[in-house]
């Protein structure tokens, strides 16, 4: 029987196709087998004592073929905590653009005389820049207020007959968002929201021992005449118990430091919330002007939302302006460090730029419009703030994963990805999933509140596949450490086996 021989090129093509089909089939079978193992192990994880009582919501998607590889309560609503920052920062990238810059300006309300006298007020106009200072030292060449004061001096101004006015009207006068607790308002992570903000709206106080039974040494940062520090702290013996504590007296500019700091202690550090951030910023600006040889005859005061019509402000003359680094730098701080204040300021900036008002309500309208335009189903989503601190926020795992999938298709995706914490490397994931081969495989946003833990982002498996995931745990009785460990174990399984 004669054999039918295919021409060599066609035979080679057919063999390659058959080999590819066979390899794909084997690959699929291996992944399917691995997935079955992964799902079985996760089921065991979630049955552990203390873990099984939590409400869990999970969705993990392989975008290569849009396959949902793990799903648990994907349409149930969960409190997301700081995962909300993904929604806020994504909206900002879409609407403002990665190159958007915050502008903070110094304006004259009065005539500048030939002798260098400004016959009137000097106004510092805040427009939501969360980084007027750079505590870490990798964002600004010099502090913004120092830069502006030097620019004013360079114009020849040597005296201001009026006041230094902080214009805080870019945002409304509500300093907190709905759904924040009383404890939040007393904590650094719930610092007041203000269009003029500085140093995360906290005062850093440091104390060091001197000699036994003598007053301790106290310093503050930022250094300012705004606060009066009443130092009642005493240096104790080596065996003394530390009782030192600092507190601000509500309604005043006084910070009281009292108690004992043992001489054996290297030092003590504490943050004190700025009750009136805009007033503090305006005072800091006045201090900088004086340091630059510019006399100020008047006092410091603040313009709030609605205090002055826009027509009156049009008389002001711009003297100097600071432009922030590109927006993506601010988003890194929000997502990697999970900075609540910066996220709330960004939400109100969205409202001011696109909805006519620097309010939570206006900012949230911009967010909702973005979700509609993106085609992301959000009927079960409720958002009350931009940071996730509100206990009234609710999302679903499917919604969160859909948002992440949408972002992966946008031209700014690489920039967005760079703002997320990286496992074992930086941000809030620096000490999580840090062992090899997990280090560097996950870019995600963490979330934590009382009874809430979440992680949402992107992971790359050892086989080179990219997955999109959202994991939520609510209402748990176990420690947050155990819940986080379970979340990390779920991620590790996919990285290692899928």
Shape: globular
Radius of gyration, Cα only, in angstroms? Answer: 28 Å
Tell me the number of strands: 21
Judging by the overall fold, what is the CATH architecture of the largest domain? 3-Layer(aba) Sandwich
Provide the residue-averaged pLDDT.
Answer: 93
What's the CATH topology name of the largest domain?
Beta-lactamase
Give the CATH H-level superfamily of the largest domain. Answer: DD-peptidase/beta-lactamase superfamily
Question: Level of helix content?
Answer: 25-40%
Q: N- to C-terminal separation? A: 48 Å
Strand content: 15-25%
Q: What distinguishing features does this structure have?
A:
disordered N terminus, 7-stranded mixed β-sheet, alpha/beta, D-tyrosyl-trna(Tyr) Deacylase, Chain: A, 21 strands, 498 residues
Q: What topology emerges from the helices and strands here?
A:
Blueprint: H1 8-45, E1 55-62, E2 67-72, H2 84-95, E3 103-112, E4 117-125, H3 144-154, E5 159-160, E6 164-167, H4 182-185, E7 202-208, E8 217-221, E9 228-231, E10 234-236, E11 245-248, E12 254-258, E13 260-262, E14 268-273, H5 277-291, E15 295-296, E16 300-303, H6 310-313, E17 317-323, H7 327-336, H8 340-354, H9 360-373, H10 397-407, H11 413-419, E18 421-422, E19 442-449, E20 452-460, E21 466-474, H12 480-497
Parallel strand pairs: 4-5, 4-6, 5-15, 6-16, 9-12, 10-13
Antiparallel strand pairs: 1-2, 1-21, 3-4, 3-17, 7-8, 7-14, 11-12, 18-19, 19-20, 20-21
Helix pairs in contact: 1-12, 2-7, 2-8, 2-9, 3-5, 7-11, 8-9
